[in-house]
Amino acid sequence: MSDASPAPEVSIRELHTMEQVAAAADVISEVWGGDKTGMPANLLQALAHSGNYAVGLYLDRPGADGPGGERMIGASVAFFAAPAERSMHSHITGVLAPYRSLGLGRLLKQHQRQWAFARDVGHITWTFDPLIARNAHFNLRVLGARVTEYLVDHYGAMDDVVNRGDESDRLMASWALAAPASPPREEDIVTTVEVPPDIERIRREQPGEALDWRYRVREAFEGLMQDGFVVGGFDADRGYLFVRA
């Protein structure tokens, strides 16, 4: 995801009708290669109707599909954690392929942040694949989220096009909405953990090598975290930057 400025004809709106919910479920399915299990419409309807965060990202311009020349090109879903935690978990966010790298991921996160603030939520958490460098850059460097856990095969076997054939290791990110983290000082960086620049291409072309990357990064994270180190940031050239806790 990029932090570039989004196009002005894009808007974000909460999902209120079953038609909107079905469109959002279809968008999420398309983002994940046609997998209908990622966010079924009936589950999304239940989350939206019970007051959780469920929005569509619309392209509002003549020639787009839908009433008034609009087309849904992305969606995001989050649900509340325990009341005492004043936290919300962002479960899934996706933007259709032709509209990526336009700053829309950042636009969705900023909308989510404002929505959460209005409901006295101070933290948003989510998981992401530690091997996807662009997501690590966006989450840790652009947003200032912190890594709190390394979760081994967190979702079990996944059958969507993006994750099929791999193990679903994830990092848990926590975003303090009023106090995002800053990059670590160079003198505080103890060591780094490299990740490939394009793991998705490697998965398609060399699945065995992709699994090797998975196991190497998992072993490095687990060892460093057991020794009391934490992720302090991310660098495109060096990967994850570890500092003393």
Radius of gyration: 18 Å
Distance from N terminus to C terminus (CA atoms, Å) equals 28 Å
Strand order of the largest sheet: 1-2-3-4-5-7-6
- How much of the sequence is in beta strands? 25-35%
User: What is the mean predicted local confidence, pLDDT?
Assistant: 90
Structural write-up:
This protein has 245 residues and is α+β, with helices and mostly antiparallel strands. The chain has a seven-stranded mixed β-sheet with strand order 1-2-3-4-5-7-6, with helices on both faces. The chain has a three-stranded antiparallel β-sheet with strand order 8-10-9. The chain starts with 9 loop residues before the first strand and ends with a strand. Helix content is 30%, strand content 28%. α1 crosses α2 (41-49) and α5 crosses α6. It has six helices and ten strands; from the N terminus they run βααβββαβαβββααββ.
Topology summary:
Blueprint: E1 10-14, H1 18-31, H2 41-49, E2 53-60, E3 70-80, E4 87-95, H3 104-117, E5 123-128, H4 133-142, E6 146-151, E7 170-176, E8 191-193, H5 199-205, H6 207-226, E9 229-235, E10 239-244
Parallel strand pairs: 4-5
Antiparallel strand pairs: 1-2, 2-3, 3-4, 5-7, 6-7, 8-10, 9-10
Helix pairs in contact: 1-2, 5-6
In short:
The chain is of the alpha+beta class.
Name the descriptors.
single chain, 6 helices, three-stranded antiparallel β-sheet, alpha+beta, disordered N terminus, 28% strand, 245 residues, seven-stranded mixed β-sheet
